[in-house]
Amino acid sequence: MTEPQPPKPINGYRKFWAQRFGISTFLPTTRAEMEARGWDACDVIIVTGDAYIDHPSFGMALVGRLLEAQGFRVGIISQPDWHSAEDFRRLGKPNLYFGVTAGNMDSMVNRYTADRKLRSDDAYTPDAQPNKRPDRAVTVYSQRCREAFPDATIVIGSIEASLRRIAHFDYWSETVRRSVLPDSKADLLLFGNAERAIVELTHRLAKGEAIAEIRDLRGSAFMVTRGWRPEGWSEADSTTVDTPGAIHPHPDPYEMKEKNPAAPPKAAAATGVQTIQFVDRASKLAAKMEARAHTVIRLPSYEQVKADPVLYAHASRTFHLESNPGNARALVQAHGDRDVWLNPPPIPLSMAEMDFVYDLPYARAPHPSYGNAKIPAWEMIRFSVNIMRGCFGGCTFCSITEHEGRIIQSRSEKSILREIEEIRDKTPGFTGVISDVGGPTANMYRMACKDPKIEASCRRPSCVFPDVCENLNTDHAPLISLYRKARALPGIKKIFVASGLRYDLAVKSPEYIKELATHHVGGYLKIAPEHISEGPLSKMMKPGIGSYDRFKEMFDRFSKEAGKEQYLIPYFIAAHPGTTDNDMLELALWLKKNGFRLDQVQTFLPTPLATATAMYHTGKNPLRKVTKTSETVGIVKGARQRRLHKAFLRYHDAENWPMLRQALKDMGRADLIGPGKHQLVPAFQPIGTGYAANARRRPAAPRRQARLR
């Protein structure tokens, strides 16, 4: 597999003429702020569902500062009133485009719990006020931008757009919805962490190229006429991706063949000697790769995947097989008489490019217009540092892979240390404690495949399941070095690691676990086994509980050697596809045996495009070839069963005892009801708890309704 051509560095473009206006303390959010900067218009206006916080952990600031560094004038419309188009006119019409994002979170995940109940707060809003963004914010904001300026160019992005770039199952409406492109009427969708794509796109638009002509941008998706293809491209049906063909032996590079056995040369006929040639394997492979690079895979249409769960699962499997930037092909999916075209994923940023993005002149604070309002998301990250992005874990319930990809993009040690010093010197309220040095997975920093050619050709969804790949570099030495240098900085008292970590990787480096337990844990360390049973773990693509046990043994030993009393706080998921009632019972017994009483538990939430969501919707396992007779997956869908699985995780809560007692009886495990240490729930019910107490708290139902029940 040939590697993609090296892309142009994101800091390698000639700056736009508007660079003369210099750097803004904060990007303008009002006309008055624009005029104070001497601007008559914005080149790009970013519309976001989050409060504007000028910090690299927030997408609108990162993209805004990146484009500002290219010389463009960037304005921010933060949490606009979406009930009319008026608020979308506040900065005027952008010269180039509106960039629309729902914010750091998917708006539906942000607004609703796993039980589809409205949340009472929003961490990305001043004073955590709810209802400051609409459902499906990308679509609503785009429509309002179009209403405000019908001829404006609209580019959508963020995790919400990424996860909805093709037809997808929508948990909140329990249906398969179209790609966000036809619903939003956007001109272009940029998926993933789109720095490379957005820089190239903006410069091309600034040079006068029409948005409708930009069709070769990696990491972009757009609508085209049904059957459209670039010149020289061919189309292949998705069944060719996931259908095994005839098995051919690998060609022998030393094999000799006749040039043309059917018509031997005259010399051969005269002398009886046949001419031979070596097989030019390199040329043959190069031609094959060239053809592959110009082949688009046609997924089953929106109408087909909506009607047929097997085709939905097949499309999900194909989509994930075509996700490695080193070998992914373009994808196309029909929506009625038009196609949604997806170019291959973007090439990950180099370390130098990551440093460039994170070293930009962020104000590292919320916009002054918020005054003294508390923004929980800002309070949580204000003293933390993001050292990398991406995750090669491939957990089926997680959306990181679909959005950020599985190739790790790391910052340099120098860049990270500079940011810690920036926090120390410029962030109000800093007490010498860095709350987190991490990322999507704290201990994947600078990890990669040992061979770039193998990485570019790999099509595995995970580098660590079912076991850690032998080609994966699991060296924790760079991370240990970073930790030591960071805590040695003047004015730094403590550095915590609060991001989740992969314990199956950590056990490969006892020195790392010792470093972590000795210096970077504040009494408790969060860790996510997710389950203990093989059934759900295999559908999650998570390691067995044995890896957790090995990590715990090392963590406890090194904590004791350091003279510290520290504990692991495990996280588990209830109601994940592939989980049975018995699996949850075994987990509850394990929790009780190990003395865990969980306060917060997570019920599986199907997010668009995730593999586990495909399982939830179809009952099929897309981790293997999908057919009508292929492996089925048990699904927990009913509200009562989902509540039961959650109750097993909180076996100690008296409110759950009536439900658990009934379930244990139904399962033939009434022996687990009683006061014994080996039993799960007591036979008695404390006064003021359980069903009777809950009934008293609810308003009385009308008599007629009660009789109908």
Q: What's the average pLDDT?
A: 91
- Structural class, by secondary structure, is alpha/beta
* Main sheet overview: 10 strands, mixed
Under CATH, the homologous superfamily of the domain at 383-611 reads tm_1862 like domain
Assembly type of the chains comes to: single chain
Fold topology:
Elements: H1 31-36, E1 44-48, E2 53-54, H2 59-69, E3 74-78, E4 97-101, H3 107-111, H4 137-148, E5 154-157, H5 158-162, E6 168-170, E7 175-177, H6 180-184, E8 188-190, H7 195-206, E9 220-225, E10 234-237, E11 256-258, H8 266-271, E12 276-278, H9 281-293, E13 295-298, H10 302-307, H11 309-321, E14 330-335, E15 338-342, H12 351-358, E16 365-366, H13 376-381, E17 384-386, E18 388-389, H14 400-404, E19 409-410, H15 413-426, E20 433-434, E21 436-438, H16 452-457, H17 477-487, E22 494-495, H18 503-506, H19 510-519, E23 524-530, H20 534-540, H21 545-561, E24 567-574, H22 581-593, E25 602-603, H23 611-618, H24 639-649, H25 657-666, H26 690-697, H27 703-708
Parallel strand pairs: 1-3, 1-4, 4-5, 5-8, 10-13, 13-14, 17-21, 20-22, 23-24, 24-25
Antiparallel strand pairs: 2-16, 6-7, 8-9, 9-15, 11-12, 14-15, 18-19
Helix pairs in contact: 11-23, 15-17, 19-21, 22-24
